[in-house]
Amino acid sequence: MTQITKDTIIGDILDAEKDCSKFFLEIGMHCLGCPSARGETVEQACEVHGVDCDELVEKINDFLASK
């Protein structure tokens, strides 16, 4: 996976790069293994957890680019 967007499904991100889980844990998303969490988009997770979606997407993309 080279780049994500706010519409990327969290499960797809974690399947491609498990080390991205730390970014979701940092925003308080601790149930990464549950089916509903894995089926959410990044934007949906950010809405639920009160996090700036663009900022999270940028962090994850910077991380992926550094690999």
Would you give an account of this structure?
The longest helix has 13 residues, at 53-65. This protein has one domain. It is an all-alpha fold. The protein has five helices and no strands. 57% of the residues lie in helices and 0% in strands. The protein has helices at residues 10-16, 21-26, 35-38, 42-49, 53-65.
Q: Which labels suit this protein?
A:
single chain; 67 residues; mainly alpha; 5 helices; globular
Strand content: under 5%
Biggest beta-sheet profile: none
Distance between the termini: 11 Å
Helix content: 55-70%
Spans where pLDDT lies below 50 across 5 or more residues: none
In total, how many beta strands?
Answer: 0
Look at the structure and give the mean pLDDT: 92
SSE-based structural type: mainly alpha
Query: Radius of gyration over alpha carbons?
Result: 10 Å
| Overall tally of structural domains | 1
Q: Return the string of H and E elements.
A: HHHHH
Query: How many helix segments?
Result: 5
State the shape: globular
A few lines on this structure:
With 67 residues, the protein is an all-alpha fold. It has helices at 10-16, 21-26, 35-38, 42-49, 53-65.
Fold topology:
Layout: H1 10-16, H2 21-26, H3 35-38, H4 42-49, H5 53-65
